[in-house]
Amino acid sequence: MPGRVPSVKFLQRIQNPTKRQLIQSLTLAVWNTPDCEHFTDVLIKNPRHTSHSDSRPHITLRMKTARQAAEKSGQTVHVYYNEQTKQYEAFRLYSERKDDPKKDEPKEE
Question: What domain of life is recorded for the organism (predicted)?
């Protein structure tokens, strides 16, 4: 579907423009895969990090369809990329769950 543009929001401020652009391009790479093209909203939660549930370095996204957004739920996505080349490698899409307002919503500034 050429011309589709998701609603993208950052949960954290990312001051470094190079890092911000990389995260945006990786996000769009995942969003344009057949498994994720049905999502309409994307929340970029965390830049490259590891977590207790995934020791492989990744970016964490929260993706939602229109229905999920209305029901305040969504799916977490871990995006993997090569640190040296900055090229997208893979992603892991987790099961749908209800939003956690403390973790899954942008802070008002």
Answer: Eukaryota
